[in-house]
Structure formats: structure tokens, C-alpha cells
Design brief:
The chain is an alpha+beta fold. The protein has a domain of 313 residues: Rossmann fold. Helices cover 23% and strands 25% of the residues. It has eleven helices and 22 strands. The strands form five sheets. A seven-stranded antiparallel sheet has the order 4-3-8-9-10-11-12. A six-stranded mixed sheet has the order 13-19-20-7-21-22, with helices on both faces. Strands 14, 15, 16, 17 and 18 form a five-stranded antiparallel sheet that branches. Helix 6 crosses helix 9. The radius of gyration is 24 Å and the shape is globular. GO terms for molecular function: ATP binding; ATP hydrolysis activity. This is Abortive phage resistance protein. InterPro entries: ATPase_AAA_core, P-loop_NTPase. It holds the Pfam family AAA_21.
Length: 528
């Protein structure tokens, strides 16, 4: 990083937990891990597509916390096993964007994975599976009424167990968590860690295995002898874990219960699901974006990005508004929380203005004070003066960009441990804008300290380009006539050369994933 010293304040947004926190080091303020002073020095702006960028903004060296692979079975439109691997193959293209993993010989990981396929082909179901695992590990369904909301393959065996297996890296060590469950509860669960002697199957060591007895209670078998390198394993810890196992209910993983019982041995793994694995939900991102707008310097930065992407927006910001403007739209539960003696809180409120659009307000409570502010956009007149345009008057594409901008600022920072799940990355965007966003993610991944990943779905065939992506970063989801989906990496097809026209091959049906459209639809009953 060029220039003098830099203070970085890393703020982790989301639900408060024992694994979230604030880290202060030594001039700027960093929200979402982007240092304003660094941004100013390094000219944080878009270049033309294909133009090289300056090095990533790196302030400190940390171990990677990334996704290695994810497999599942009997989930929504997927009956048989399906999987997504972030392990880079032997191809040499775009090697500079790969994520190195110290300590595991020959292992490099992909920064992105894109999923193509026809409508209802199963693309979104893959991200839904990851979102479900995140929610289940972090205890979102512990008090669910009517059972765990797991959805097996239909038509078929919706009541059969659904299985998940996820391999990830935290603090430089590789972990494997797998479990199976039905709506009635968890059937089995196991946790493994991998020794740093390569990436073969022989390196896995079982930490614990959990089964379920006839009464639905958890039976956990600990393997302390397999954990000599893991810190804190002693007789006292094993005793506490054994007691924790007795209180693990059918709707909860043993790993999750240890954190709930304040046993810290697996807190860093829980933290990966809670904080590192992130889902780009609309309200979540709008709220985060709005909170970032409370800093004027971030308003300027977002304005620069929006101008560079030719949106017509010159500046964004928050404008004080009377509470009466949102009285009709405020959620009663949030109103009750505001009126109670709660902690700092934020809520995004949509106030209908027209038939097709809403105004957006940020309602915040801090130190007992409640504020209401309206998200505004501003444009520049030909004479150079500023005009308030209004967020609600912006195009759906600009509103969508503001929704996902916090995702991309995380990914572009080059110093954020995050795995973002982004459904329909091209929604409301011109293909040039989508390419620019993805290219920027890949360019930000260049360098030895990259640690962020993005998994997205798309219909945009212009992204299916070996000048942009590697073959193992491209997946095709296809649904058969029986309604069963499958997922295939493009790299598994033979004859994939860099000079191959992927878009033409895809449209010709070589890779599958095309909708099967009956050309005679709508003709029944029409006059001849």
C-alpha cells in the first residue's frame, strides 16, 4: 500500500454474536473493510473493460477463510448428489486471480463461480442450499413451528433425508462439516479437520460424530485423540462437550449448540457461517448501504462509482425527514423495539409513493435517539448546479445497483474475508455493466493476499467468455424431463479450448442447460 500509515477500523455488520467485533489498527475510517484514505490515494474508480488496475489495497496479512467445496443431495429440484467445487483445476488461464492456500500443497481456489441455465433449471436452488446451511448452522430454525423447513426433491421422496457437506477454510485449517436431516430433525452430523500434508482424502481426521437415538436425542462421539494439534482439547473440554451433547435438540446441530452454551472451541467455525458466508438479500444490502451513507466520505465514493458506471447519478445521501412520512409503513414489531430500551438498531422502511415505486427511509436508534432519514439521489444540471432527483425516481437498474453495491465493495477491497452468494447478478443491468462488475472482482483478486469469493447465477451469455472466466468457474444447471436438476462444470467437457466460442456452443446445446420450448405454444384455439 502506498503512502503513509493507515488506521483501519473493520466493522462487521449483521447480528451481534461472540465472533463479531471491531478491530482498530493505526488516519481513515473503514466500513465494510474499505479504507477511505487508501481509496483516495489509489484512485478507487472503474477503468475501461480490460484495462489493468492498480494493486489490491492490502493493509495486513491474514489467513484465508474461504469455501473449498459444497455438495448436497435431495434438495428441491436436485434428487441425486450435486456439487460445486471452488478448487482450481490444472488450467493455466487467469492463474493470477487464484487464491493460494498456505500449508496445503498444490491447492488453489477460485475467486468466482458462475451458474448458467434455463428458467427453473435449478440455478437458484444451489444458492438456496448454501443459504439454508448458513441459517441452520447459526440457529435460525431452532424454534421453527411445523418442523425444519427443509425441502426434498418433488415429485419423488420429499420425506427422505436431505444431506449437506461443506468444506471450508478458517484460520488456515481446512474443515468438513456434514449433516443430514428431515423436517423432524437432524439424523446425523460429523465434523472433520484436514492435516496440512496435501489435500488427499487420507488427511481427514474426525473431531466428532453425532447420531440420533430412538427417542430423537443426540448421541455424540468425541474423538479427542484425533485432535492433538487443535488448541484447548483436554479432559475438562471433553466433559463440557459431553454435557452439551445431552442438551442438543433435534432442530439444532451439535456445533451450533456448543456456541450457544458458550463453549468456544468451535466458535471460529460458527463465525465463518455467521459472518464470512453472506447472502445478498435486498433489504439487508439496502440497510447496509444506507448505514454506509451516514459517512459523507462514503457518499463521495459511491458517487464516483455511480458516475463511472454511467448511471446519471452524481451523488447519493441521506436527508432528514419527519417521522410522519413513514407512520403507515413502519413494521409494528420494529416500532415496539424502537419504543423500548433497546440497543442500536436500523430498519429500512419502504413508503409507497406511486403504483410502481417506493421511497426508502432509514430509521435508526442510537444512544436512545431515533432518527428518520430518506435515501436521496442527486444529479448535475448542465450549468453545473446540483438537483435533487429522488431515489424513488431512479431506474430499476440504478436501484438494483445500489442494492448490491455493498457486496461489490466488499469483494473489491482485496482485504475482506467473504463468500458472497448473489442470485441473478445481471438482473436489471446492461451486459457491459455486469461484465465491468465481475471483471473488477477478478482484478481485485490478483495478489497473494486475496481471500474473497463470489458465487452467482446469471442468464447473461456475454459473461460466458474465457477472456473473463476460467472453464472451471463456469457451471451449467439443467433440468431433465422428470424435473430433476443436475449441475456440471464446463471444465468437465472435453475439447474446451481457449479459442472455443462458448456462447455459440452453449446455444447449440452442447453443454445442456437450455430451456425446452414447445414452438407450438399458444397456437391452440387460434383462428387459421
Amino acid at each position: 500500500m502506498s503512502g503513509g500509515s493507515c488506521r483501519r477500523i473493520v466493522i462487521v455488520y449483521g447480528l451481534a454474536s461472540s465472533v463479531n467485533g471491531v478491530i482498530a489498527v493505526d488516519g481513515g475510517v473503514d466500513v465494510g473493510n474499505i479504507c477511505i484514505d487508501c481509496v483516495k490515494r489509489e484512485n478507487f474508480a472503474f477503468r475501461a473493460v480490460g484495462e489493468r488496475m492498480k494493486p489490491s489495497l492490502i493493509s495486513q496479512v491474514r489467513e484465508v477463510g474461504v469455501l473449498v467445496s459444497f455438495t448436497f443431495e435431495n434438495w428441491k429440484s436436485y434428487r441425486g448428489p450435486a456439487g460445486l467445487s471452488m478448487v482450481a483445476g490444472r488450467g493455466r488461464s487467469h492463474a493470477g486471480t487464484l487464491i493460494p492456500v498456505p500449508g496445503y500443497r498444490g491447492l488453489s481456489l477460485l475467486p468466482v463461480a458462475g451458474i448458467w441455465g434455463g428458467n427453473a433449471g435449478g440455478k437458484t436452488n444451489i444458492l438456496d442450499a448454501l443459504r439454508f446451511v448458513k441459517a441452520f448452522v447459526t440457529g435460525e430454525y431452532e424454534t421453527a413451528r411445523g418442523g425444519i423447513p427443509v425441502r426434498g426433491f418433488r415429485p419423488g421422496s420429499p420425506d427422505s433425508p436431505t444431506r449437506f457437506s461443506i468444506v471450508f477454510i478458517v484460520d488456515g485449517r481446512m474443515w468438513l462439516l456434514e449433516f443430514s436431516l428431515t423436517r423432524s430433525g437432524v439424523i446425523d452430523e460429523a465434523l472433520y479437520w484436514h492435516t496440512k500434508d496435501g489435500i488427499g482424502d487420507s488427511g481427514w481426521r474426525n473431531v466428532y460424530s453425532r447420531t440420533t437415538d430412538g427417542g430423537g436425542d443426540a448421541v455424540v462421539e468425541l474423538q479427542p485423540a484425533a485432535c492433538p494439534e487443535l488448541p484447548g482439547w483436554d479432559d475438562e473440554l471433553c466433559g463440557r462437550l459431553a454435557e452439551c451433547a445431552k442438551g442438543t435438540g433435534p432442530y439444532r446441530l451439535f456445533l451450533s449448540n456448543t456456541v450457544g452454551q458458550r463453549i468456544p472451541v468451535f466458535a471460529h467455525l460458527y463465525g465463518w457461517f455467521d459472518s464470512t458466508l453472506r447472502h445478498a438479500g435486498a433489504d439487508t444490502q439496502y440497510t447496509r448501504f444506507s448505514k454506509m451513507l451516514t459517512d459523507e466520505r462514503y457518499c463521495r465514493m459511491f458517487g464516483e462509482i455511480l458516475r463511472a458506471l454511467d448511471t446519471g447519478v452524481d451523488r447519493v445521501g441521506l436527508e432528514n425527514a419527519p417521522a410522519s412520512e413513514i407512520e403507515r409503513s413502519m413494521d409494528p414489531r420494529f416500532r415496539a423495539r424502537l419504543e423500548s430500551d433497546g440497543d442500536t438498531m436500523y430498519q429500512l422502511v419502504h413508503q409507497p409513493l406511486h403504483d410502481i415505486t417506493d421511497a426508502v427511509y432509514l430509521v435508526a436508534k442510537k444512544d436512545g435517539n431515533i432518527s428518520v432519514r430518506r435515501v436521496q439521489t442527486y444529479r448535475r444540471r448542465p450549468d453545473g448546479t446540483e438537483e435533487r432527483f429522488g431515489f424513488e425516481n431512479e431506474s430499476s437498474g440504478t436501484r438494483r445497483l445500489l442494492e448490491v453495491l455493498p457486496v461489490f465493495t466488499d469483494l473489491w477491497s482485496g482485504d475482506t474475508e467473504c463468500v458472497w452468494l448473489l442470485d441473478e447478478i445481471d438482473k436489471e443491468f446492461h451486459t457491459d455493466m455486469t461484465q465491468a462488475l465481475v471483471r473488477r472482482v477478478l482484478e481485485s483478486s490478483e495478489g497473494a493476499h486475496a481471500r474473497s469469493q463470489m458465487i452467482f447465477t446469471t442468464h447473461d451469455l456475454m459473461l460466458m467468455d474465457t477472456d473473463l472466466l476460467r472453464a472451471d468457474e463456469i457451471y451449467i444447471a439443467e433440468r431433465s424431463r422428470s424435473g430433476e436438476s443436475s449441475l456440471t462444470a464446463l471444465s468437465s467437457y472435453k475439447g474446451i479450448r481457449k479459442d472455443l466460442d462458448l456462447r455459440r456452443s452453449y446455444l447449440e446445446g452442447r453443454f445442456g442447460g437450455l430451456p425446452s420450448i414447445d414452438a407450438s405454444y399458444g397456437s391452440e384455439g387460434t383462428e387459421e
